[in-house]
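User: I'm curious what two different proteins look like when written out as structure tokens. Can you demonstrate?

Assistant: Sure. I'll show them one after the other, since each token string lines up with its own sequence. Here's the first protein:
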Amino acid sequence: MASKSGQLAHQEAQREAAMALLLEAGAVSECEVDPGIYINQHRGTEGARDLGLRLIKVKDRRVSAFKNRVELSDAIDLAFGDADDRCELCAKRAKAG
């Protein structure tokens, strides 16, 4: 059984890989002002999922965090769910001044 810290590291690696696929597919964008804030581009996850599946077939290192297609798909869904409609930090700054 993997250690709790090992599991967390694996989950974070999957999240990062999934977010990179979403970025490359244009499903999300990163805020230009606040790095690490991802904005939903309302294009869905299909492009990221297709890209990930193609990369799994050729054993690309960008998808090495995933044991199978189900893990890839689940991680993409979770990462996409983390994306917001806007950067709340930018919205707060705009509202303040």
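Here's a second, unrelated protein for contrast:
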Amino acid sequence: MDRSLGVLSYLLLAVLALTLADAGFGLLEPANVIRVVSGGSTAVSGELDSPAEDIRSVGRPPPGTDLSGYVTIRSDSPDMHLVLSRIRGRLWNGRLTVDGGARSGVFSLSVHQRFVPPAANYRPFEVRVFPDREALQEDLPTFSERLLGVKPYWLTLVCLPAVAGLLFFSYRRARQRDRLYQERGFGVIHTLSRKAWGYEITFGLGRRQGVEEGEPLVLLDAEGRVLTEFVPRLVKADFGKARIKPTVPVTTDCLVMRRKPGADQDAGNLASTGSA
């Protein structure tokens, strides 16, 4: 069960990392790219070269008013039509429509305020026209959009709670396992780090489990065999720390056992503890 949880956790974390990387690839695409299917339309927005003072003078136009007459629109395709529905300062919004039967390809579209020279760094829109939705989807910038037809952030939103829930469940299960071992006088190794002088371990036995400063403890392998005895260098309420010689084959599967009467249990009980 624990091994399956670990594999599932790694898989979900890998999927989460892939969705984040995929979203990053999507951000690399220039903002001036527009995709549209022949015979369809899409919402577009952009910036003018300077604030549209002449548009402010007309006040707030009624909804649905075409404001395209206040700007200069240029395109190298006669099949594209841009209708502006809103202009506020330099920002504008509108809808680009492509006639049915328009040829596929990449076309240019530029929007400028009338009587204002275009900025030197102005980049026209790159409008990509496709014959159908399938061809458009194959051109999308992210793998999730091309393969599944969904934005990568939707996959991220699905994976995040799944990973969080699995980590919480794994934490609860690990705590239950630790308590079960502690009730039988054993402590699980929580951390294992290699040092120049050997190993440093943190284990799940402390003062609440009856361990005292200077009390000798026993290190067992996963099969219950004694590897070595040691004295912890630090004893806290629910855990302790110790240094182990470099010649001892210590792993995170090892257990720590008390030597005191009543807690010095037969190492053969480890099998039943681990399977519980």
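A detail about the second structure: The longest helix spans residues 152-183.
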